[in-house]
């Protein structure tokens, strides 16, 4: 079935695709919504046109998906890690083979440029390939005890895990969550954001085609209500959530009721510190990479760019020049570097931040491309603010808005950089290696990029400090978040009883 959406993709252009197939997936197939009455339109951000309907799953549907995942978990968890790896490698291969089509569909639903979407899809299959590689390495420990007795540990899966995703990296988030989950022997029920429902189900079909047991990776559609049904379900062992801080808190609270494990990947307001001894051209490129990927809708963006006062004029001149030159427009064109924001209300919210009395150095206006089919799209010109305006510097804007702030000393800038409740990422540009590592040590954030920004190889752990969340995605450590240790203690002699 998915093939039909995907098969229409090679010739697809902006403004032409309509998705009509059911977007739920469990029991090894797409499942039609039980009732259509709560259907919500999903928009193509580049045109404002309706792309499909998202019909939220109710309690019975959520339960069906979870039961189907549980049945699959019982088979999958008994397979050897090497066998699971083989299936996952096949899934990675299929994604690689269909990368252009999947990327196109992602662009049509999300609005980001095709150049970026292709990278996202590549990171997705790489993540599955990486965890396939780890699946065969899962092992416990053997511990010798007195009198010939011993103990050993088994690394076991958790059971049915739930993934709840945001709209900015729909396919990639589904892969980042499912890859480690499946490698460890778990099943996953995934709920994409109601604004980007169309690509998660393609991943489900690919896993099925690769040979996972029916039900191993399920997709249920919906918003807050469906999400809360998942977090409350007694058969769910863990919830991995990507989204905003307020929703993350609710997910944690709901999960606490039945003591489910949680991973929270939340928002950020990350600092990027540029010292005067940096290589300026790289620092400027770094600041652009830190702010303008996916129209600035990236949780780990370095949106507070601290620049040492002595180099501020040169830095601003260059960064403004390059920001003005970013081609905004039809996201399916290879020449486009910035597409449309996710929705009209979100665009208005971002423009609202800019208009709050901040010193605008460039951009920050609604943008209407000349192509008539894009007239209803949610575009804006990327923006640089030279400001200390408190709202823009404190709150996560989640749009193409960079704030540039002057600083004088290392001590002062670290204190200001850490003066936030968030702690997802950070960055530093300097040629002084001691300073680079000292700053990295002192920044309160889950990641610090030195002399680059926003690269995320799948081998490297990603996650937050402070209110940006806890738990990690990517890297070896994520195995710990999708598995548990069982200790088996073996007596070789007689029982010494005190009674
Ligand atoms: N740290 C990270 O990896 C990332 C964090 N984000 C954060 O996500 C936000 C933007 O994404 P949104 O989708 O607007 O965030 P959101 O928090 O509104 O929604 C995220 C997901 O949670 C679901 N949800 C909403 N209410 C729920 C509830 N009561 N129970 C269970 N699930 C519920 C939504 O349907 C969606 O799938 C930004 O603030 C950004 O910082 C976004 C991407 C990555
Ligand atoms: C891929 N990367 C690093 C640009 C962003 C990943 C985090 C997110 O989902 O926002």
From TrEMBL:
<dbReference type="Pfam" id="PF00171">
    <property type="entry name" value="Aldedh"/>
</dbReference>
<dbReference type="GO" id="GO:0004029">
    <property type="term" value="F:aldehyde dehydrogenase (NAD+) activity"/>
</dbReference>
<dbReference type="InterPro" id="IPR016162">
    <property type="entry name" value="Ald_DH_N"/>
</dbReference>
<comment type="subunit">
    <text>Homotetramer.</text>
</comment>
<dbReference type="InterPro" id="IPR029510">
    <property type="entry name" value="Ald_DH_CS_GLU"/>
</dbReference>
<keyword id="KW-0520">NAD</keyword>
<dbReference type="InterPro" id="IPR016163">
    <property type="entry name" value="Ald_DH_C"/>
</dbReference>
<keyword id="KW-0963">Cytoplasm</keyword>
<comment type="pathway">
    <text>Amine and polyamine biosynthesis; carnitine biosynthesis.</text>
</comment>
<feature type="active site">
    <location>
        <position position="265"/>
    </location>
</feature>
<dbReference type="InterPro" id="IPR016161">
    <property type="entry name" value="Ald_DH/histidinol_DH"/>
</dbReference>
<feature type="domain" description="Aldehyde dehydrogenase">
    <location>
        <begin position="38"/>
        <end position="488"/>
    </location>
</feature>
<comment type="similarity">
    <text>Belongs to the aldehyde dehydrogenase family.</text>
</comment>
<dbReference type="GO" id="GO:0047105">
    <property type="term" value="F:4-trimethylammoniobutyraldehyde dehydrogenase activity"/>
</dbReference>
<dbReference type="InterPro" id="IPR016160">
    <property type="entry name" value="Ald_DH_CS_CYS"/>
</dbReference>
<comment type="function">
    <text>Converts gamma-trimethylaminobutyraldehyde into gamma-butyrobetaine with high efficiency (in vitro). Can catalyze the irreversible oxidation of a broad range of aldehydes to the corresponding acids in an NAD-dependent reaction, but with low efficiency.</text>
</comment>
<dbReference type="InterPro" id="IPR015590">
    <property type="entry name" value="Aldehyde_DH_dom"/>
</dbReference>
<protein>
    <submittedName>
        <fullName>Aldehyde dehydrogenase 9 family, member A1a, tandem duplicate 2</fullName>
    </submittedName>
</protein>
<keyword id="KW-0560">Oxidoreductase</keyword>
<dbReference type="GO" id="GO:0005829">
    <property type="term" value="C:cytosol"/>
</dbReference>
């Amino acid at each position: 079935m998915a093939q039909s959406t995907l098969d229409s993709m090679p010739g697809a252009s902006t403004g032409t695709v309509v998705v009509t197939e059911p977007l739920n997936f469990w029991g090894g197939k797409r499942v039609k919504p039980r009732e259509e009455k709560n259907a919500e339109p999903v928009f193509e951000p580049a045109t404002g046109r309706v792309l499909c309907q998202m019909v939220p799953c109710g309690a019975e549907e959520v339960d069906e998906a979870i039961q189907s995942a549980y049945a699959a978990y019982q088979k999958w968890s008994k397979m050897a890690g090497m066998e699971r790896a083989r299936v996952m490698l096949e899934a990675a291969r299929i994604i690689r083979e269909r990368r252009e089509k999947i990327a196109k569909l992602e662009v049509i639903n999300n609005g980001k440029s095709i150049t970026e979407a292709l990278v996202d899809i590549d990171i997705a299959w790489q993540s599955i390939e990486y965890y396939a590689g780890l699946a065969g390495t899962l092992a416990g420990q053997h511990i010798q005890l007195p009198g010939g007795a011993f103990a050993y540990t088994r690394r076991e899966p958790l059971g049915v895990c739930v993934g709840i995703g945001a709209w900015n990296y729909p396919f990639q988030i589904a892969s980042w969550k499912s890859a480690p989950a499946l490698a460890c022997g778990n099943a996953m029920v995934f709920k994409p954001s109601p604004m980007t429902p169309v690509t998660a189900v393609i991943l489900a079909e690919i896993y099925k085609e690769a040979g996972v047991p029916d039900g191993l990776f399920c997709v249920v559609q919906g918003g807050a209500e469906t999400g809360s049904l998942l977090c409350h379900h007694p058969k769910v062992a863990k919830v991995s959530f990507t989204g905003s801080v307020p929703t993350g808190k609710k997910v944690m609270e709901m999960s606490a009721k039945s003591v489910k494990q949680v991973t929270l990947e939340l928002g950020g307001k990350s600092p990027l510190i540029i010292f005067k001894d940096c290589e300026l051209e790289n620092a400027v490129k770094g600041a652009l990479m830190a702010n303008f990927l996916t129209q600035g809708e990236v949780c780990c963006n370095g949106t507070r760019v601290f620049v040492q006062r002595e180099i501020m004029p040169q830095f601003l001149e260059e960064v403004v020049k390059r920001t003005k030159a970013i081609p905004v427009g039809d996201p399916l064109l290879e020449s486009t570097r910035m597409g449309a924001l996710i929705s009209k209300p979100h665009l208005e919210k971002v423009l609202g931040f800019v208009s709050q009395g901040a010193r605008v150095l460039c951009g920050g206006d609604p943008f209407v491309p000349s192509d008539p089919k894009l007239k209803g799209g949610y575009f804006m010109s990327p923006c640089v603010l030279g400001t200390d305006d408190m709202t823009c510097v404190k709150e996560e804007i989640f749009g193409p808005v960079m704030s540039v702030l002057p600083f004088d000393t290392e001590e002062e800038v670290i204190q200001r950089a850490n003066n936030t409740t968030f702690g997802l990422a950070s960055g530093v540009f300097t040629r002084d290696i001691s300073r680079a590592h000292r700053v990295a040590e002192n920044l309160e954030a889950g990641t610090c990029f030195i002399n680059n920004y926003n690269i995320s190889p799948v081998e490297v752990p990603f996650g937050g400090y402070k209110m940006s969340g806890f738990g990690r995605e990517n890297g070896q450590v994520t195995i710990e978040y999708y598995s548990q240790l069982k200790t088996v203690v073996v007596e070789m002699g007689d029982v010494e009883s005190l009674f």
